[in-house]
Design a protein that fits this description.
0% helix, mainly beta, 7-stranded antiparallel beta sheet, 51% strand
Length: 181
């Protein structure tokens, strides 16, 4: 697998699985330096393209998270988009250590090789808002209200495969996180 800047106009950062039939995990994150204060109106945004045909063994998450955990659903606190399985659904998830809300279908689907802007607005932790290409898309209220002034997160994009010779790719054009000081 490779993590590398890709040549070309504008440049992007790429994560690509190798063709080895084995479990692989590639992550772009802040090295567990948790610096985004969840209670300070944080907004995460990333422009990302995913290439490949997914199966139940493949997944990508895009958003904010606490310290990295190789088992994504065991991450202590997170708010992210999740792409998993063969149906091309874009899902959303939140977890604040008390309320764990997984695998909510946004009714939006992704297309291989197409860039989308994924945005998560934490300005109201009792109603976290998710947007794809500026269209709000969470199917229900997503609650992170148990996060406190000492809850810090980091930008987090991870792709995983459990097995298979697939060579999926994630291309990251940019990641932007803003919050009040």
């Amino acid at each position: 697998p490779t993590l590398a800047y890709e040549d070309g106009p504008g440049g992007v950062f790429g994560m690509t699985f190798s063709s080895d039939d084995e479990a692989q995990k590639l992550t772009v994150y802040a090295g567990d330096r948790l610096y985004v204060p969840a209670t300070k109106n944080a907004v995460f945004e990333a422009r990302v393209a995913i290439t490949g045909t997914f199966s139940a063994d493949d997944r990508v998450v895009i958003g904010l998270a606490a310290a990295r955990n190789a088992t994504l659903d065991n991450n202590a606190s997170h708010s992210w988009f999740k792409i998993e399985g063969a149906n091309n659904n874009i899902l959303v998830e939140t977890d604040d250590g008390t309320t764990d809300n997984d695998d909510n279908d946004t009714t939006k689907d992704w297309t291989s090789g197409t860039y989308y802007v994924y945005r998560i607005d934490l300005s109201d932790l009792s109603n976290v808002r998710f947007f794809v290409d500026d269209v709000q898309c969470q199917p229900e209220t997503m609650d992170l209200s148990q996060l406190t002034a000492t809850s810090y997160l980091q930008p987090y994009i991870e792709m995983q495969k459990d097995a298979g010779a697939v060579t999926h790719k994630v291309q990251i054009d940019y990641i932007r996180v803003t919050y009040d000081r």
